[in-house]
Specification:
Structural class: mainly beta
Shape: globular
InterPro entries: BacA/B
Order of helices and strands: EEEEEEEEEEEEHHHE
Protein name: Protein CcmA, bactofilin family
Organism: Marinobacterium stanieri
Strand order of the largest sheet: 2-4-6-8-10-12-13
Family: Belongs to the bactofilin family.
Number of domains: 1
Largest sheet: 7 strands, mixed
Length: 159
Amino acid sequence: MGILKRNVSAQSSRTAVTIVARGNRMQGDLHLTGKLHVDGELEGRIESADDLAVGRQGVVRGTVRARQVTVSGVLEGELHCESLHIERGGRVSANVCSEELIIEPRASFVGERRTPAQAQLVHLEPEPEQNDSDCLEGLDYHLIDSLPDRITLAREGND
């Protein structure tokens, strides 16, 4: 037999956790107020006011906005967050805008990371007007040809 209180709010102060389970694939736009945990595949635009966790079997592709992001699986695309933590075995291939970036040993990050302050500068500063011939003067084309097409940063250490 239960006891019911008459003056208890129907709204809970706790947020819900949305789970995309292993073997499931979702595509589209998600707008969440609570946490999101992905062990399946999720593709599209994801906006969460809370945290996102990509499990070991999880794959997320698209544009992601969340508070804190932890990746043990794969995240590809564009990411805006306060903190990104790439755990051992996690792979992130994205343009990232975050205050904090933590990459554990045997994790992988391929892409570009900017802080929110740097991102603001990129959008606010107008390009100075230059004559195209000024830009090309003194340019060593052999140096440009010697640059790699892709740079991968990986942190290895003792476990």
